[in-house]
Design brief:
Keywords: Acyltransferase, Lipid A biosynthesis, Lipid biosynthesis, Lipid metabolism, Repeat, Transferase. β19 (186-189) and β20 (192-195) form a beta hairpin. By secondary structure, the protein is an alpha/beta fold.
Amino acid sequence: MLITDLAQRCDATAQGGDSTTFINSAADIMSALPHQVTVLSDGKYKKYLKDSKASACFITEQLIDGEIPENLTLLICKDPEISFLNAVKLLHPEPVFKRQVSEYAVLADTSTLGYDVHVGPFATIGQQSSIGDSSTIEAGARIGNHVMIGKHCHIHPNAVIYDHSIIGNNVIIHAGAVIGADGFGYKFRDNQHVKVPHVGHVEIDDNVEIGANTCIDRGALGATRIGAGSKIDNLVQLGHNNIVGRNVIICGQSGISGSCTIEDGAILAGSTGVADHVKIGARAVVMARSGISGDIDPGAQVFGSPAKDRKVAWKELAALAKLPELMQKFKALEARVLKLEE
């Protein structure tokens, strides 16, 4: 694609360099080569621009400063990150499936498929389940009984969606994810663990993405719900009856116990652990490897285990780092006191 075409399709204006250069791929600003496009959206990376070998770079006018390579065309735009993401999609399109229902797929006689649905080999779709228009079920995926999947969804290989799950439109579920397994619930009676039946289901709203090997348990009674626009990373465990709001981010290796509420726009960074029946307020930020044992206020930023206000937690860590030095001073002072007492 020519730089001029790329600029037009990504809401940018070309300046300098040779705008008739052909662009074949995208790369980061530190490794980009000729015939590649890159992006500069953060001033701390400006130092890499003057030596960049890229043929084009998305940038705002505010970041244009200093020496610009002669062969580099600047693609000036309001939001370089979004323009660059659009360019990546154009230059690196997703593979296009030959839309078909594989002869090796197994579909129950009461299942229904919408228009232009793709079902890969060895995928199975259970009784009374429905798949919306233009959705893709890749090889080896298991869709249980009475499952509803909306339009334009993409279920990757070997994902498992248990019975009675409800999936909205434009949902992506990556390989190995398990939606709707039993929650982890037991009662200890007569010196043994008695399993709690889980007869609920999972509801996932529109535009949600579920990472690879993530598990979302169904409700014991009622639903586990994931709100529209939320994004859940790989290797996340979401327990039964959790209510996740809209546009929530949950990063990898996080574990959320049962019956929690995570309100709209909250962010849980990597390896966050959340105890049961906790409420995390709207737009709260839980920093990496934090342990949440109580409710978090809306908009709060917390860190540590147990988690507390991030500024308090950082001060405590800074003080802890000084502890060896303080111990040495204390021992020296103690020795002086003992000597005075002799």
